[in-house]
Amino acid sequence: MTISHLARANVLALEPYQSARRLGGSGDVWLNANEYPLPPSFKPRYGNLNRYPACQPEQVINGYAAYAGVRPDGVLVCRGADEGIELLIRAFCEPGRDAVLFCPPTYGMYAVSAETFGVARRTVPALPDWQLDLPAIEAQLDGVKLVYVCSPNNPTGNIIQPEELKALLEMTRGRALVVADEAYIEFCPRATLAGWLAHYPHLVILRTLSKAFALAGLRCGFVLAGAEVIQLLLKVIAPYPLSLPVADIAEQALSAEGVALMRERVAQITATRQWLANELQECDAVLEVYPSESNYLLVRFAPGSPAFKSLWDQGIILRNQSKQPGLTDCLRITIGTREECRRVVTALRELPVTATRRQEAL
């Protein structure tokens, strides 16, 4: 007898999300997970670890509400934005009946989380400019409870235009929740929808401390929404989602000093991103460097380019996006330190001149 025959059929068939750590690699330049390249200086303070933590630590909730410009009763803290994705499915979707909708190419956990809970997945591919195909979304809305929209989008780096999002919110009013994944919003703060929450009770926003706050290892995320949505999510969240050390460091990160440090990081990453984009455009193997409002660049290479494997073998670990719809021959490059980015450029310039843009031009 095997154990697998006891498992749920959809889990047996599930293809798990291939996180950067699952994919592995052996190197010293890690540019495949959209992390900040240097560790922050926060240290856990003394706490009573013999006691359970609060489900929703007041100082963390108040700190994030003040930072995001929303009411504390519209904030839920959880184990990364990934848990927020799952909590929404658990609270709003009936397995075997309801569906979620998203627009690839985009973040893979929307699909994996829905499949895990036995909820149907509907996809409406993004338009060639990676904006929303609104007529196609409207045609697929029956039975959809959650529409996930990532902006800035991972892995393409573009924002979804405000008029597109307003049209989507009007289209879904009374029918479905629109979940705006703003994991990278600190790199494009003008694009946040936080100010829209009072006008759209079916709008939900996902946030994280993993990117600009440089705390990917902390696993701390947030859901911003109307109080009614937050109360429903509190029914299904684990009793103690944040450990005391996590809450302690999150509180420090959300202090005035912590937010100021985050903004300095964003300025530095943005400057390095522009430098790297300019340098990559001069590399023979590169066909296109796409504009980005995030801490990474999506880069299309010439067909057959050995760039990914060559850099991997040199200990420079990038993220291959070629399996995503419309992203054949694309790599995503996290913005690391300036020296790490120089190593990427140097390695690309040393590639053999085969199937490159320059060769094609000849």
TrEMBL record:
Record's keyword annotation contains Flavoprotein: no
Metabolic or biological pathway, per its Swiss-Prot or TrEMBL entry: Amino-acid biosynthesis; L-histidine biosynthesis; L-histidine from 5-phospho-alpha-D-ribose 1-diphosphate: step 7/9
Top-level taxon: Bacteria
Record CDD domains: AAT_like
Record protein name field: Histidinol-phosphate aminotransferase
Gene that produces this protein: hisC
Cofactor(s) annotated in UniProt: pyridoxal 5'-phosphate
Gene Ontology biological process: L-histidine biosynthetic process
Residue positions where N6-(pyridoxal phosphate)lysine is found in the record: K211
First-level EC class: transferase
InterPro entries the UniProt entry points to: Aminotrans_II_pyridoxalP_BS (IPR001917), Aminotransferase_I/II_large (IPR004839), HisP_aminotrans (IPR005861), PyrdxlP-dep_Trfase (IPR015424), PyrdxlP-dep_Trfase_major (IPR015421), PyrdxlP-dep_Trfase_small (IPR015422)
Gene Ontology MF term list: histidinol-phosphate transaminase activity; pyridoxal phosphate binding
Domain Aminotransferase class I/classII large: 46-348
Ubl conjugation listed as a keyword: no
Name of one Pfam family that matches: Aminotran_1_2
Catalytic function, reaction form: L-histidinol phosphate + 2-oxoglutarate = 3-(imidazol-4-yl)-2-oxopropyl phosphate + L-glutamate
EC number: 2.6.1.9
Subunit note: Homodimer.
Family per similarity comment: Belongs to the class-II pyridoxal-phosphate-dependent aminotransferase family. Histidinol-phosphate aminotransferase subfamily.
Keywords assigned: Amino-acid biosynthesis, Aminotransferase, Histidine biosynthesis, Pyridoxal phosphate, Transferase
